[in-house]
Amino acid sequence: MADYLTAGKVAGRAGVNIQTVRYYERRGLLVPDGRRDSGYRLYGQEAVRKLRFIKNAQGLGFSLDEIARLLRMRVGQKAQCGKVKKQAQSRLVVVQEKITALRAMERALKALIRTCSAKATTDRCPILESLEDGRQSP
């Protein structure tokens, strides 16, 4: 098992925290290839590639459940790229919905900020009043 890496080394090479390696292992996304006599988990180079894959997929907004499906497709010989494309399209719809919601939040915050007179006391602050009564904009 000379070519195997400990969890700490795998984490370092993948650019993640060791707790991340342990978490992904608990979630079933990462499986050690073996153990030392001392009990330390050992991983091959594939674990580094898999960790990078997971982090990159998370960076695109995929959930861990979606990533698990993508990982299964990645190793499946019979899975077709079209299924991966569908997952990516699905994720894109979610991202676009979030962008729309964030833009609405931005507009509401800008409107609230415009109503604020910085010299007024907080008992007459339109931003605080809006948050209290649930108005999103003046």
Short key terms for the protein model shown above:
6 helices, 3-stranded antiparallel beta sheet, 3 strands, Multidrug-efflux Transporter Regulator, Chain: A, Domain 2, 138 residues, mainly alpha, 2 domains, elongated
Describe what this molecule looks like in 3D.
- By secondary structure, this protein is mainly alpha-helical.
- It folds into 2 domains: 1-60, Multidrug-efflux Transporter Regulator, Chain: A, Domain 2 (Orthogonal Bundle); 80-138.
- It is 63% helix and 5% strand.
- The chain is built from 6 helices and 3 strands, in the order E-H-H-E-E-H-H-H-H.
- Helix 1 (7-14) packs across helix 3.
- The longest helix is centred in the last third of the chain and has 35 residues, at 81-115.
- The model has no long low-confidence stretch (mean pLDDT 89).
Give the biggest beta sheet: 3 strands, antiparallel
How many runs of DSSP E, i.e. beta strands? 3
Helix residue percentage: 55-70%
**Strand line-up in the sheet with most strands:** 1-3-2
Report the structural category: mainly alpha
Total domain modules: 2
Contiguous helical run count? 6
Q: Which stretches are poorly predicted, pLDDT < 50 over at least 5 residues?
A: none
* CATH class label of the largest domain: Mainly Alpha
CATH topology group of the largest domain: Multidrug-efflux Transporter Regulator, Chain: A, Domain 2
